[in-house]
Amino acid sequence: MSVDQILVGAAPGDAVTGIALAMRDLLRLDGPSEVYARYRDPVLAGDIHTLDELPVARRSADDVLVYHASIGEPDVMAFLDGRPERLVVHYHNMTPARFFRPFDKRLADLLEIGRGELAALRPRVSGALADSRYNADELEALGYHDVRVVAPPVDFPGLLSQPTDPSLQRHIDLHHQGPRILFVGQLLPHKRPDVLLGAAHILRTYFDIPVFLVIAGTPRVPSYAAALQRFVVESNLAGVWLAGPQSPSRLATFFRHSDILVTASEHEGFCVPLLEAMAFGLPVVARAAAAIPETMGDAGVLLPVDAGPALFAEVIAELLDDPTLRIELETRGYERVLDFDLAQTRAAMHATVRELAT
Amino acid sequence: MDTPSSVDPNAELVARLQARIAHRRAAGEYPPDLEWDLDEHFRRITAYRAQPMPERLTEALKVLDERARFELVPIPVGSSVPGASKALSRVAAAVETQTRDLADQIRSFAEGVRHALDGVIEAMAAFPATVLAQIDAVQDSQALLDVRQHQVERALELAGRRHHTLTTIIGSVNGEAIVDEVGHADLVARLVGFGPVLDLTASPVFSAMLRAEEVVLCDADGSLETRLGSYPNGSLGAAVVIDAAASLSTRELPAAVVELARLLRPEGLVLIESANPASWWATATSDRPVTATWPATWVAELFEAAGFCEVAIELRGLPPAELGAAAGAAAAGADDGRLAALLLAPARYVVTARR
């Protein structure tokens, strides 16, 4: 029996790609296992194959394909339709299309059809797992049964041991005077970095706190990234850096040199950066949206889903002004990270996939 | 893994902060509609990008088409008055002729508008990003001007408060290049006595060196002309012109030297560091246009004529080390003496002078 994985797209730094590779390494303890993708960043050519490289010969219902669902793609559906293997779905959530409609209609359409595809796949699926209870609930609402919840393995030791990037550190030391606020995540509409820009504006203009806000993440939708840049310029907002994609070393450097991690995201299937920030001892602030409360636990400040820039600004000001609260959150954060111990999450994922595959 | 049952342990904190926001609004500490304004501002920016201009024009065109469908309204010609129908028919025929003619003119006009819009749509569809980028660039420039003006005002205010004269640093590339080529500690040490430094470009390393020496640095990036004109005679302690002079034409350089003489107080220092336009290495490796060729003797005369003394011109830096041997070999094999001179000419010029 072989267990292989199918992705719609594979790119460096993409969370789902990272999970698939981690899972592949675990599955290889039992036998051969590969990852295949419809769209693949050429950088990953050594690690990930294209769909047409997956052989049909000598494959049967004894073998298993784990399909990572996070967006729709008719080509992948057609591909899965013709395969003899049994199918396991790993659901990472699909962002509601409404967030993307104004910026990228094609992407919005793919997200919309993705849920339909998931429902259509259900009769063929022999097992399902999800990153969070929130994701599992969505899958069950589409008719799936007995969806297993397995947190994605987060490589805290690997990130914590990353060296500090010297040129970035020098840049931060020279230019980021004042409190440093960090957002980590792809620049996508549902992550709502615009709310954080508004909060920075309030902090600097009305509270006279010279915060420096770093938005660290890959701009996946060009028109949205351009709109954010425009917002910064038109607001005459100093102390904001749309820093773009980050290497692990630069990411670790940002975590080490920041005071607070904050996100105004309205939709997350898990939200790894919250835990990464906790591992670095940062207090975290987020909206209680989607799977965020489940991931964060009581280890950070949870704001109402409709919290606006003013409330974010107030929380940031409060945290900067209250070392006791910061220390309390730091302690709770370290404790929360222990709940996601890498060895345990890896073992849980391995056991679950193995069970679903047999 | 534990999944907490209570998802909002900070309810008390959130409630307290929400109350504080209400208090701030009531006290007028920030505008009551501030959040709405921010949201609306971003919504407007995104809406502008969400619907490409050609699509908007296409919609406008559809509306125009619909409105250009004219119908002639029949003119009633029936009448109970004997003979009136005939007269009315004649009038109606005349009015109809006139109306048809008018309608044709309107259709022709609408067709002209439509044709013009088609041309605009075609042009914008071909270069939508460029049009947007150009609009953005204009707005960016406007915003930048405001920022720069504020920075210069701040620098002047700072200088006034501390009763110091200003030092200006004009031009430059990045900080590393300054350190490598000019901005050694020697330069920093010379600037210490001059008080606040107005830097017309951002150069992180140089800024750090100055800060370490407790020299106050004000960033005031901007165009040379607009920045210097506002300073009074003899208001600057020193002028450091880095990597800018070679881009001046032979006509502009004398004017710049005279302007520096006007700006500097007596004993004021000027330091110019530039690519040597006579060097092939400097011009071939520079990412900036080098527009002038100025012989050292001519430059020295310019400064002396403008009232400077202690004029020293230093030609620095042979061709890059890794190219030196190749350059020498090429020069040795070159028949053309000018080519040999070009290849072996020092890459940088450093001019120092005292007012």
- The secondary structure category of chain A is alpha/beta
Compute the number of strand runs of chain A. Answer: 13
Going across the biggest sheet of chain A, name each strand in turn.
3-2-1-4-5-6-7
Q: Gap between N and C termini of chain A, in Å?
A: 9 Å
Order of helices and strands of chain A: EHEEEHEHEHEHHEHEHEHEHEHEHHH
* Regions with little confidence, pLDDT below 50 for 5+ residues of chain A: none
Q: State the shape of chain A.
A: globular
- Strand runs of chain B, count: 7
Largest sheet of chain B: 7 strands, mixed
Shape of chain B: elongated
Unreliable stretches of chain B (pLDDT < 50, length at least 5) are: 1-7, 161-166, 171-184, 219-227, 280-291, 318-324
Largest protein-protein interface: A-B, 47 and 39 residues
Helix share, percent of chain B: 55-70%
Oligomer kind: heterodimer
The strand line-up of the biggest sheet of chain B is 3-2-1-4-5-7-6
- Strand proportion of chain B: 5-15%
3D architecture notes:
- The complex is a heterodimer of chains A (358) and B (355).
- In chain A, helix 2 links the parallel strand 4 (64-69) and strand 5.
- Chain A contains 14 helices and 13 strands.
- Chain A has helices at residues 15-27, 74-81, 105-121, 133-141, 156-160, 166-175, 193-205, 222-234, 248-256, 272-279, 292-296, 309-321, 323-338, 342-357, and strands spanning 3-10, 35-40, 49-50, 64-69, 86-91, 125-130, 148-149, 180-184, 212-216, 240-244, 260-263, 284-287, 301-303.
- By secondary structure, chain A is an alpha/beta fold.
- In chain A, the strands form 2 sheets. Chain A has a 7-stranded parallel beta sheet, sandwiched between helices. In chain A, strands 10-9-8-11-12-13 form a 6-stranded parallel beta sheet, sandwiched between helices.
- In chain A, 43% of the residues lie in helices and 17% in strands.
- Chain B contains 14 helices and 7 strands.
- In chain B, strands 3-2-1-4-5-7-6 form a 7-stranded mixed beta sheet, sandwiched between helices.
- Chain B is elongated.
- Residues 1-7, 161-166, 171-184, 219-227, 280-291 and 318-324 of chain B have low confidence and may be disordered.
- The interface between A and B is large, with 47 and 39 residues.
